[in-house]
Design brief:
The chain is mainly alpha-helical. The protein has 2 domains: about 1-35 and about 225-483, no CATH class; about 40-200, no CATH class. The protein contains 20 helices and no strands. The radius of gyration is 22 Å and the shape is globular. Residues about 1-5 have low confidence and may be disordered.
Length: about 475
């Protein structure tokens, strides 16, 4: 049973990752096209509106989805109560957002932000419509149906955004595209799910779920503040153009985080909740998850660090060159966040959302102070502040998490050791290659393609020769998938 659960979880991660790979490639292509059609300040203006609305949306479903996943015994009243509570909160937050939008616009000294908030607030009602359906799929590890909805969301929002941007809609192309994708996602999740809300609502059932969910919601709110303090400070102190540059740089380094690590976390939380009382099995599953994440995300970010100058110029154009240095600085933060995100699966599965909540309070305070200081040195200073703070906090929260499942830091570091050494080898190898190629005056596009190829070859050969057992593990998992 223990072995089957761990293996089925990893196979679920692989299948979901494979299904989403094409989606993320499409989203990346969309972002590249939009970056060439729009200006940095237009990305910045939308970023100002989404800072506020993103904060509001973290409150939207009250942490009830995590409570549904973590709770072992559920009935129909729990589910319907969650649905109506989320809908009521969404409608209330939508109204509040519209009412306060003029004040948010005044704070950032950008009038357009008001109307962006008014329109985007519709998403606060769309989200809760499918929150229970999505949560039930997650609880039952049925990620195929969630993937279908997300693929359609990405395709619709991307195509509409590009079409509108080409026709001169500017910032509104991002807004309307995002809302269209959200609507399609809700429509598909309802179509794929057999569950429908009844008219039942019980304050007793709500209290049972909210007791756990309140800590999760609080943690998410604080985590959102942690993740967006830099955006808020840059938007207020440095302006929309600086925010546009920083947003693109940060999105690039968090691509492995948001598209791989969070995907894995979404799969492992319900799986770990099933075995929450068995620390030995948890250790085994957790170390495998961390090992596989690091094997993918570490070399991706190491490669980005070393080819950043050519990558930015070739892919986004010369107008985005100011993001090169902050992008390189943020790569280390991205490495740590890609594996650090997994601590949430352990904390929540063990029912210790309170630890996550308290930790995020500390992080919000420390990070805010650091970012304000870093802003004195522009977006590079902010990137450096974020990286330093993330490095310091990562070690502390990881030790706390390890203690919950009796995991030593030695065994944790042993799990990510192959990825660390392989990524360092990749950087050194590509750096040597580029220094040689400079002699031949290679063009940016040629340097980018050849450097990327060399990096991939160096990394794969290194892992294959020195850590052959990892290849054997992956072959075993792929064999199970074929079966």
């Amino acid at each position: 049973m223990k072995h089957t659960l761990t293996k089925s979880t990893l196979i679920g991660i692989l299948w979901t990752g494979i299904s989403q790979f094409s989606t993320q490639i499409f989203r990346f292509i969309v972002n590249v096209i939009l970056a060439r059609l729009l200006y940095p300040e237009e990305f910045g203006i939308v970023g100002l509106a989404t800072i506020f609305l993103g904060f509001i949306s973290t409150i939207n479903e009250l942490g009830l989805s995590a409570a549904i996943i973590q709770r072992k015994k559920l009935d129909e009243t729990h589910l319907s109560t969650s649905f109506w509570a989320s809908m009521g909160m969404g409608a209330m937050l939508c109204i509040i957002s519209i009412l306060v939008s003029p004040f948010i616009a005044d704070f950032f000294q950008e009038k357009l932000v008001r109307w962006l908030i008014v329109v985007i607030s519709v998403g606060l009602i769309l989200g809760p419509l499918s929150v229970v359906q999505r949560t039930l799929f997650e609880k039952n590890l049925n990620f195929k149906k969630i993937t279908i909805a997300e693929i359609c969301d990405t395709l619709v929002s991307g195509l509409i955004s590009i079409f509108l941007a080409m026709n001169g809609y500017g910032v509104w192309s991002l807004v309307y595209g995002g809302l269209s994708g959200s609507f399609i996602s809700v429509f598909i999740l309802w179509g794929l799910s057999s569950w429908r809300p009844s008219l039942k609502f019980s304050f007793a059932h709500f209290k049972e779920l909210f007791g756990f969910g309140s800590h999760v919601m609080g943690s998410r709110v604080l985590n959102y503040i942690d993740s967006n303090t830099d955006y808020l400070v840059i938007g207020k102190l440095l302006g929309t153009s600086a925010l546009g540059y920083y947003t693109l740089a940060y999105n690039l380094i968090t691509f492995p985080l948001s598209k791989i690590s969070l995907l894995v976390t979404r799969v492992t939380f319900p799986a770990f909740s099933i075995i929450q009382d068995d620390n030995k099995t948890l250790q085994k599953g957790y170390l495998k998850v961390v090992r596989y994440i690091s094997l993918i995300t570490f070399p991706m970010l190491a490669g980005m660090f070393v080819v950043a100058p050519e990558f930015v110029v070739v892919i986004y154009g010369s107008k985005w060159m100011p993001i090169i240095l902050p992008l390189q600085v943020l790569c280390l933060a991205g490495v740590l966040k890609s594996v650090g995100t997994t601590v949430g699966s352990i904390l929540l599965s063990k029912g210790r959302a309170d630890i996550q909540f308290k930790w995020n309070i500390l992080t919000a305070i420390v990070l805010t102070i650091a970012v304000i200081i870093g802003a004195n040195y522009g977006i590079v200073g902010v990137a450096a502040a974020v990286t330093i703070v993330e490095s310091f906090l990562f070690l502390i929260v990881q030790k706390i998490t390890n203690k919950l499942i009796d995991l030593s830091m030695y065994n944790y570091l042993k799990a990510i050791y192959p990825a660390i050494i392989g990524s360092i080898t990749l950087i050194i190898g590509v750096e040597i290659y580029q220094r040689i190629m400079v002699i031949y005056h290679a063009h940016d596009i040629g340097m980018l393609i050849s450097s990327s190829s060399v990096g991939i070859i160096i990394y794969l050969l290194f892992i294959r020769l020195l850590f052959k057992n990892l290849f054997d593990e992956m072959k075993s998992l792929l064999h199970e998938m074929r079966k």
